[in-house]
Every structure is written in structure tokens, then in C-alpha cells.
Specification:
This protein has 418 residues and is an all-alpha fold. Helix content is 80%, strand content 0%. It has helices at residues 8-28, 34-40, 45-73, 76-94, 99-114, 116-127, 130-150, 153-162, 164-193, 195-200, 210-218, 221-241, 245-253, 257-285, 289-308, 315-330, 334-342, 348-376, 380-386, 388-403. The chain crosses the membrane at residues 7-23, 43-62, 74-95, 101-124, 136-159, 165-186, 223-250, 262-281, 290-309, 315-336, 348-370, 382-404.
Length: 418
């Protein structure tokens, strides 16, 4: 029995997506308690921006190294360790006595988070056939969006009921347990079910040197196109949702925390729709570039609209814009469809890591810059100027979409393994 034809692959799929769902929920959940942290720990907006940025900085800086290691040694170990680190960091966050402890906790969460998506892509590549891969990426993106959704009104209501420390502690413990479940599902059980397949892999193919591979990576147009695509879509969305979206609703529209988190749910509904719809549309049209460029243009115009309304568009329009921006974030799964179609399997991990670095480099920069602008321009004017940042970043994403070169049959990619 082969992995790609077994029913067990769906157990792997469900378990990995559940882990991803939990981990993504903790990527932005701290944004719900931004104001509380500023009061409880007596810190400035810049400090809160630093807490968010250090998490995404760890994530972004480790994407390429994790991709290289996963390509060579397999994705299972890194996914398991990532879940355990994420859980440990979340537990520490819930027990933090001061802002320095919070900083270390978010650093651990960022390191754990760095291992998740790249290895999820590789695991799906190993367990599923190419024709299934793009559609399943859409469902994987949907599970991430559901994680973001949990970190809005449901998690906010939980915090209001029990306090933020209890909520984060519970999720942290659950993530640690998830790490042990992943070990059983990805390592122990497959070793029992697929012994013959394991024996077939008696020789390892020679890998290209790391330095040569990295040199090819950073000079490849397609790799940079995917980097910029993720920079423009994921970073602007995750960076804003994870730090300033709830305070934005509170200050600009006089909402309560729960009301502001419900507003963000509109964007998450768009993301949940965007992942499967965009991958389905790409399969239907037989192209990734056209739908992806269209999405990037839509996101750029959405952020421009928020900026032109001085950060406070009419409420009905705000709902539409958040829905569209969320749809774009869901459609970012097409970045990895591009990677899978454009590069050989032996380098999918490192190229996926490079592309993912773009999104989370943007997510590192946006909260910190946004926080500094708010500190410098108090009140509503700070948000108005702050929205220049996602406008610029989404423009870079649009440029990335235009730079994508559709793979043609018989044309070899620039990055290969000898």
C-alpha cells in the first residue's frame, strides 16, 4: 500500500490541519488584549508593536533555514517540535509577570510557528498526488482562516469570561498535547503501516550544496515573484489584524472590544471563502497568474480606499473592504501553488520558505511602523497616516503578481538539483 493511495492520508490531512488551526489562532490572538497589556504592564504602543514584531521576525528569519532542513531531513520532526514550542511559548505568555517574559514567550511562539506552513506544504506533497495538491492547499488555507476566526469574537468572549491568562494557558496546554498526537500520526503509525515503502528508500539522492542552492534561489525571478506576492497579501493582513485591528475599531468607530473583534470576523469570512474559491478558480482556468494578479489589484485598491477616507470609510464600505482584504489573504495559497508548479520537489521546501518569508517580513515591519506612527500622531490622524503602510506593501504584492511567469511544458526551472 502506497501513502498517496491510502485512506490513512486523510487522517494525516485532518491532524495536520487541526494543528495548523490551533497554531494560527495564537498568531493573532494577542491583538485582542493590546489595550489590556498596555494597562497591565504599563507599556507604550511601540512596545506592543515590538512584541508582535519579534514573533513575526523569528518566523520570517527561520523560513529559509527550515525549508532547507525539511527538504533534506523530512518535515515530520520539525512540525512536531514546532507544535511543542508554540504550546510552551503560549503557556509562558499566560504566566508572564512582566513585558520581558512576554517578549521571550512570543519569541518561542514565533520559532514554533516558523516550522508549520512549510512542513505542512511538504507533508501534503508527500501524501497526496499533484492533482489533489492545489485544491487541498485551499482547504489548508481555510483551516488557517478558521484559526484566525477563532481568535476574534469566540476567543474575545472567552477572555471576557475567564480572563486572558486562563484562555491562553488552556490553548497552550492543548498545543503541547497536539505535538504528541502529531508524533503518533506522522511517525509511529506510518512506520507500522508502510514498512515496505520505507525499505524501498535504501539510497539517498545526492543533494546540491546549500550555498549553490541559495545563490540560485536569490537570483531567480519566479522565487522573488512569490516572495513579493506574499509580502503584499499576508503581511498587510496578518500584521494589521494581529496588532492594531481591534484598537482601530475601538478608537475610530467607538466599538467595544467584542464589537471590534466581530468586525474583524468579516475579513476572516472573506479569507475562509478566498482560499478554496481561488484555488478552484485557478484549477478551472488552468492558470495561477491571472486570478492572482486580479486579487492583488483588488487588495491594493481596497487599502487605497481606506487611506483616501482618512482611515474612516463609511461603515458599510468598511465591511466590504474587510471582506475583500480577507479574501485576498485566503487567496495567498496560490503562492504555494505557483511554487509547486514551478520548482522540483527537492527544493519545494526552501522555495516555500523563501516565499513565506516575504509575508512575515511584511508582518514584522507593519505593526512596528504602525505603532511608531500612532505614537507620533496621537488620535485618529495616526490611523490615517498609518494606512500608507499597507498601501505601499500591497503595491509591492501587485508587482510580484505581475512578475509571475507561468510554467510552460518542457521548460526547466532555474532552480534545480543536479
Amino acid at each position: 500500500m502506497e501513502k498517496q493511495n491510502s485512506r490513512y492520508r486523510w487522517v494525516v490531512f485532518a491532524t495536520v490541519l487541526f494543528a495548523y488551526f490551533l497554531i494560527v489562532s495564537q498568531r493573532t490572538a494577542p491583538g485582542l488584549i493590546t489595550d489590556q497589556l498596555m494597562v497591565d504592564f504599563k507599556v507604550t504602543a511601540s512596545t506592543i508593536g515590538l512584541l508582535t514584531s519579534v514573533q513575526f521576525l523569528a518566523y520570517a528569519s527561520l523560513q529559509v533555514p527550515i525549508g532547507l532542513l525539511s527538504d533534506r531531513y523530512g518535515p515530520n520532526l520539525f512540525l512536531i517540535v514546532g507544535a511543542l514550542l508554540n504550546g510552551t511559548g503560549t503557556v509562558m505568555y499566560s504566566l508572564a509577570p512582566n513585558e520581558y517574559f512576554l517578549l521571550v514567550a512570543r519569541l518561542l511562539v514565533g520559532i514554533g510557528d516558523a516550522t508549520i506552513w512549510v512542513n505542512l506544504v511538504l507533508i501534503l506533497s508527500q501524501w497526496f498526488k499533484v492533482k489533489e495538491f492545489i485544491s487541498l492547499l485551499g482547504f489548508a488555507g481555510m483551516s488557517g482562516s478558521l484559526g484566525f476566526l477563532m481568535a476574534t469574537f469566540p476567543f474575545s468572549a472567552w477572555i471576557d469570561l475567564t480572563g486572558w491568562r486562563v484562555a491562553f494557558l488552556t490553548i497552550g496546554i492543548l498545543l503541547c498535547l497536539c505535538g504528541f498526537i502529531l508524533y503518533y500520526v506522522l511517525v509511529k503509525k506510518p512506520n507500522q503501516l508502510f514498512k515496505q515503502e520505507k525499505k524501498k528508500k535504501t539510497t539517498l539522492e545526492k543533494s546540491e550544496s546549500t550555498i549553490v542552492l541559495l545563490r540560485r534561489l536569490v537570483t531567480d525571478r519566479q522565487a522573488w515573484a512569490t516572495f513579493l506576492c506574499h509580502f503584499g497579501l499576508v503581511g498587510t493582513y496578518v500584521g494589521f489584524i494581529g496588532s492594531w485591528a481591534v484598537p482601530y475599531g475601538i478608537h475610530m468607530y467607538d466599538m467595544t472590544r467584542s464589537e471590534a473583534s466581530q468586525l474583524i470576523m468579516i475579513g476572516l469570512v472573506g479569507a475562509i471563502i478566498g482560499a478554496p474559491v481561488s484555488t478552484w478558480l485557478s484549477n478551472r482556468l488552468g492558470t495561477v497568474k491571472f486570478p492572482y494578479v486580479t486579487v492583488h489589484l483588488m487588495i491594493f485598491l481596497s487599502w487605497v480606499t481606506v487611506f483616501l477616507f482618512a482611515g474612516k470609510p463609511p461603515f458599510y464600505l468598511l465591511i466590504i473592504l474587510f471582506l475583500l482584504i480577507g479574501f485576498g489573504n485566503g487567496a495567498s495559497a496560490l503562492t504555494f501553488a505557483t511554487v509547486r508548479q514551478s520548482f522540483p520537489m527537492k527544493v519545494v521546501g526552501v522555495v516555500s520558505g523563501f516565499a513565506n518569508t516575504g509575508g512575515f517580513l511584511s508582518a514584522v515591519l507593519l505593526p512596528s511602523i504602525f505603532g511608531k506612527i500612532l505614537d507620533h500622531f496621537p488620535g485618529n490622524i495616526g490611523y490615517q497616516y498609518g494606512f500608507m503602510i499597507p498601501v505601499i506593501f500591497s503595491l509591492l504584492g501587485l508587482i510580484g503578481g505581475v512578475l509571475i511567469k507561468e510554467k510552460q511544458e518542457g521548460v526547466a526551472t532555474a532552480i534545480h538539483v543536479d
